[in-house]
Amino acid sequence: MPGAPHDSSAEKRFDTHAARPAYLQYDRSEMPVTAMAADYVPGHVTRPHQHPHAQLVHAVQGVMVVSTAEGQWIVPPTRGMWMPGDVVHWIRMVGRVQMRTAYIRPDAAPDLPTRCTVLGISPLLRELILAAIDIPPQYAPDSRDGRLARLLLDEVKLVPTLPLHLPRPADAGLRQICDEILDSPDTGLTLADWGARLGVDPKTIQRRFARETGMTFGRWRQQARLLAALQRLAAGNKVVDVALDMGYGSPSAFATMFRRQFGMPPSAFFK
């Protein structure tokens, strides 16, 4: 797909959607909120698709890497992904994933985010999502199911957003840099190295990065490393191994940067 984030590990593992996917009865419902459950094997990748309704995607188990033309989002357990309607996306599963998705009619949540974002999932919101799985696709608005759906919408408005996004530049040269960093997060190539390779002044690369991603080159690379580290930690790799694989000089240096970005040490992130 043109402009799609590079994901070499996803090749040849796309699923084949049925002629009538199960989610069609949910993401086109007239009800304000419907929900469904789906489980996936490690490495599974959905094909690029979109839904007319907004989605709140939550993994009870496993990690999801959600991609759009604008970038990637890492969604660990205890977090969720808010996605407005009609956004073309695909999801790669890291580990065995138990996905629980609430589909939300656009006019039922006009004050919720208009862009993709990762959300913290409170204990109450988690239980509301799980309870919504048992709600039929059709229900009376003034019923218990209807009240539960309204409470779910109220709770989504209160949870925090999280910095688990890696933006995707449109410039072809910048995409080449990004793709190589995503393939080898520990690369030590500098802006000067990239400038020499692409025949572009390093200051020009820096300006383009800031304009197209909202981040400096160094900040983008740091975010790429941290999000790659999250995936490896979720797969059960040791902190010391992940730190060295990501190019950090020591586990303590990695832990310091991790805490600075996410507000907690790596050992506490998945608890």
From TrEMBL:
Residues 175-271 form the HTH araC/xylS-type domain. InterPro entries: AraC-bd, Homeodomain-like_sf, HTH_AraC, HTH_AraC-typ_CS, RmlC-like_jellyroll, RmlC_Cupin_sf, Tscrpt_reg_AraC-type_HTH. Keywords: Activator, DNA-binding, Repressor, Transcription, Transcription regulation. Gene3D superfamilies: Homeodomain-like, Jelly Rolls. One of its GO terms (molecular function) is DNA-binding transcription factor activity. It comes from the Bacteria. The keyword Plastid does not apply. Pfam families: AraC_binding (PF02311), HTH_18 (PF12833). PANTHER family: HTH-TYPE TRANSCRIPTIONAL REGULATOR NIMR, TRANSCRIPTIONAL REGULATOR-RELATED. This is AraC-like DNA-binding protein.
